[in-house]
User: Fold this.
Amino acid sequence: MRVRVPLAGLLALACVSAARAEDLTVHIADDGGHPVADSVITLIPQNPANGPAAQPKPETRVIDQKDETFIPYVQIVRPGDPIVFRNSDDTRHHVYSFAKIKAFEFVLAPGESSVPMQIAAPGIAVVGCNIHDNMINYLFVSDAPYLAQTRAEGSVTFANLSAGTYALHIWHPQLHPGTPEIVQSVTMAGSGPAQTINATLALLPDPRQRMDHEHMRY
Amino acid sequence: MGFRLRLAFFFVITLALVQALTASLVYEVTRRELIAQGERQLTESAATFVHQLDDVSGRVADSVQVLSLDFALRAAIAQHDRSTIISALRNHGRRVGAERMLLIDLDRKVEADTSDPTADGKAFPFSDLIDKALQRPSAGVEAVNGSAYWVIVVPVLAPVPIGFIAAAIPIDTPLLARMQRSSGGPKAIELVSTVDQNHWAVIARGTDAVPVATKLLEANGLRDRPAMVEVDGRDFLALAVRLDESDKAASIAAVLCYSLNDALRPYRPVVLAWAVLLTLGLVVGLGGALLIARGVSRPIEMLAATARRIGAGDYRASAPLSRQDEIGELSVAFATMAQAIGEREERILFQADHDIATGLANRFAAEAAISLALGRETTGALLALGLTRLPEIVKTMGHDLSDRVMRHAAEIVQKVAGVGSVARIGDTTLSVWLSGVERTHAITMAFTMLDALREPYREADLAIDIAPAVGIALHPQHGSSASLLVQHAEVALFAASGSEDPVAVYDPATDPHRPERLSLMGDLLHAIERDHLRLHYQPKVNLKTRKIDAVEGLVRWTHATRGMVPPDAFIGLAEETGNIRKLTRWALATGAAQGREWASRGWTMKVAVNVSARDLADADLPRRVDELLAVHGLPPHKLMLEITESAVMGEPDAAIRVLKTLADRGIDLAIDDFGVGQSSFAYLRRLPVRELKIDQTFIRKLGNDAEDRTIVASIVELGHRLGYRVTAEGVEDSGAFDYLAEVGCDHAQGYYIAKALAPQDFDRFVGGARWPVARTEEAA
Assistant:
């Protein structure tokens, strides 16, 4: 199998745009050029003083289950945030995770929500449903100062960044297992023009569609 | 080998050959078709087998996949609960029939192995399967330690891959049996794996597997074409299909095989039926061939028998076979031929036995009939009736008339003879056999016939005198066989023809045709050469001077064994055989020598020598006479040649030329036996003759026969008038002698004076003084 980690390409594509000085836009595309959603971009300043002014307040993260799909696919969670799994389907779901940061298991009747759960340590917990193999959800637990998730247009913009050097981490659930973490150093001028970083990721197919239709008649 | 057998053999061999050819053709075509069918079947089976294998492997993989989703297992894996993992893997492995289960982490290292606790941390050898497993459960046939395994790899999803489970399911004989049971896979299958380059080991067999794989692979290698393999004398078509990835060194192959013998088995009843049919066909064909051959050869054998009968002379041809075919035609032809041959033979036999011109029996038939009669009768007479004038009639009137005359004579003779059978035994001769007849009766019968034939044959205005004569030979006196009787009757007839008496009975004493004559001729020649002949001299008395002034030399032959041979017995024969010329030469020489001697004594003696017709045909005669005269110094007029009239009759012109030449030399010529022949004076005038010798028949009775006296007187007178001297022969008494002297005959010769004398006797005789010799001085 071809495993492509175009790190060199990613660096090469980095450039400084003529936008507002404090902003950084990261654009993620797959190797077909399509914008990639659900990519989590983490920006860690070298200088802890360059963090955001205010820590975000704990927020309840609701992972809905609808049409045998976890919504959202990737959920950014701050350590300590209450996490609730809600079953909006009319089937049962057996939500589990064997993640090192938090192993849990909920059997949710239709319409039922789990009791709120908190994850203290940063990390990634892959959540599945033991009944429905194609239901996958990622809980991206991080206490990084800047943390954002791409939407359908594949872009994230960090505004008002202070001048300084930042470590830019890019993660996506469909990166090939064993792929080294994508980290890039980004230097912000503070008052300079806005920067745009374009990254191209080689992604596995969406595991949620991994239904062997050849062997299925339903 | 007879026709029947050959035909039968031909039929049978042809049938057998055709059948054998057909059989081999059918066998070859069937075999090829079966091979082609086997190749198709093998290729299909191989494809099916591979497909089945894929199918089974897919299902097994799915099962493994399902196992991998077991929550507890995944939990154990996620929590690295090793003992749980091992036991769960074992448990699940049993469910899918795996011999060995492995857990592999995302780094492709073995995390747990159900059969090998030491394998942890080692790299999983089939990483390509893991690559595929990221997409879907993957499976491959792999050789591990000389065994074949399906290695099935599935990811462990929780819900993303956290590792892989590998199941190794042995592909072995039980598996093949299971596949066979469940999905009707090939039974005649072997699985092999490479031991090393070009060596293969069988690792699994189907229930009906035949050990063809190693043989096939070692001979052909791995090829995707079916090939023929022979095992224990049986033919198999085998095809090897590689089951694993082709880029691996060790390989696993399935060898499928197709038994030609089994494929041919359904044809065995056909072969059996064919053999039975062939045997039946041969028996029926043989029988039929024999029958047909008999149908052909029987009539041919009958025809052969008919032909043999015809060859033996039996022409009563058997009835033609009533068949419409060629043999029928042949038999009709045979019948026709036999009939025709029979008729021809009858005709030939008739012709062989009969004279065509007259329809009378011929000599052969006559002799045959006489032979038959001789067997029955003790006595008999054969009469040979000669129509002496017939050659003359042929020359003047032709053969037709002559034949009619012959027929006429035959009819009359038949009438007279009554029971005697008449045949034609020669051109001019009829024969009549009279059985049981004695001499007297035969002579009487002969005269009766002659009387009946006295009447001339008449036809239109023609009257022909037949002038017959009869010779008689008597049985048993004159011959015991038919041919001898015929011969002797003809001899008698010949005698009769030349004499006044028209009937003569055979006389052996006078028969000039006896067989000893031939040897006589040889002896004669011998005698001439050895000078065993003697010339005797019969004196001629000059009737005026009463002296002897001439002699006739006569040949005398004293044969060494037979004694005295009469001149009649050899002179005529010598004439016939041509030896007369030598005899004449000898006589001339001897006579000339004697004449010379007498002349030297002073005797006037003319020596006469007889000359025959043959001598006169010799143009050389005058020259030889000249030589003789010269040799002996004898004047020509001292020599006289005596010739008979008949000697000149043959070839008158040539004879006359010779005579004239002789006469011109001064040699005297005399006509002998004058008066009994056909010659006339007119004819005589043409010959240069000086002397006539009156035949002794006129002289013998001259003493008392007035008629003869007149004749002799007339001849003498006439001769003298014509200038001939006249000599009388056969003077036997004084009456004749005196009469001759009286009528003026010149010379007399005969027993009255003397018989022919040898020279010394002649000397004594003339010394006797009764008849003195004329002497030269006297003549002068």
About this structure: DSSP finds one helix and 17 strands in chain A. The interface with chain B takes residues 1, 94, 96, 98, 103, 126-130, 133-136, 173, 177-178, 204, 207, 212, 215 of chain A (CB under 8 Å).
